[in-house]
Write a structure and sequence with these properties.
Blueprint lengths: L5 E7 L4 E7 L9 H16 L5 E6 L3 E3 L7 H5 L8 H11 L4 E5 L2 E3 L2 H6 L3 E5 L3 E3 L2 H4 L5 H11 L1 H9 L4 E2 H6 L5 E3 L4 H13 L3 H15 L5 H12 L2 H12 L9
Parallel strand pairs: 2-3, 3-5, 4-6, 5-7, 6-8, 7-10
Antiparallel strand pairs: 1-2, 8-9
């Protein structure tokens, strides 16, 4: 399907899967302010709809995303009516999304897009893709929540390598350092993403959402035991747990309702 060039497009299916496609292929899906606003709006809609159980984020054309449009950088920082941290807040909202997320990396990942993908729970990349974080070569100090994500998810050594050296990293190396969960030929990308989405859809929504939130809290250095106990208790008294146990005993597939 060919999408019109412009802000990210949201598509939903009946199985509970949402797909957001970045849609500026001519410019490697670079993100303008209007794109970030649209992306944040899509994330808010997904968070508000209980029927959506997994999100796939991808790009159109030959790249996943070239990051923020640098031509708007100075303008956005000095526009009093705008959110000067719009990119950071948008990526943080994606990370905080209750439903599990998959970055379908159809090509290169550059600049802020490296963090956009990292904010997802899983990343599947194609052979031949590359990643580069050029902040140091531009004179930029990256925003704090992005640095925290890189250190907590990839480790300090990998984060320093990506940010301080600003080197181009190959797909194989991205898999080695843990940035990619899977690296596949382009012709297998959809099949692998679909299998991952199906596995997430097969889980009990209440348990999947609760554990995602707790795991992200721990990775962020927040260990809120009472809140985690609340999530644990909600699952322990849920219809989904009763259905899961009944299905296990009957040797059939469970039908979860999310409550």
């Amino acid at each position: 399907m060919t999408l019109p060039a412009g802000p990210p497009v949201l598509a939903l299916d009946r199985a509970g899967r949402a797909t957001i496609t970045l849609s500026r292929p001519r410019h490697l899906n670079r993100l303008h302010r209007e794109d970030l606003l649209a992306l944040r709006g899509h994330v808010q809609r997904i968070a508000a709809e209980p029927g959506i159980r997994v999100l796939v984020l991808t790009g159109s054309g030959r790249a996943f995303c070239a990051g923020f449009h640098l031509g708007e950088l100075e303008e956005s920082e000095h526009a009093a009516s705008d959110d000067p941290r719009l990119f950071e807040h948008t990526v943080d909202a994606l990370e905080a999304l209750p439903v599990p997320t998959i970055a379908r990396l159809n090509g290169g990942v550059f600049g802020g897009a490296t963090d956009l993908a990292l904010a997802c729970d899983f990343r599947v990349g194609v052979e031949g893709m590359e990643l580069r974080m050029p902040a140091a070569r531009l004179g930029l100090h990256y925003y704090p929540s992005g640095l925290r994500r890189f250190v907590s998810r990839l480790g300090l050594a990998a984060a320093k390598r990506l940010f301080l050296l600003a080197e181009t990293v190959s797909a194989a190396e991205l898999q080695r350092i843990g940035y990619l969960d899977a690296l596949v030929p382009a012709q297998r990308l959809d099949a692998v993403v679909d299998a991952l989405a199906d596995a997430l859809l097969a889980g009990a929504p209440l348990a999947v959402r609760g554990m995602k939130q707790s795991l992200n809290d721990i990775a962020s250095g927040v260990f809120d035991l009472p809140r985690m106990r609340e999530r644990e208790a909600a699952c322990a008294t849920s219809d989904d747990l009763r259905e899961g146990l009944a299905a296990f005993a009957a040797r059939r597939e469970p039908v979860f309702r999310g409550h």
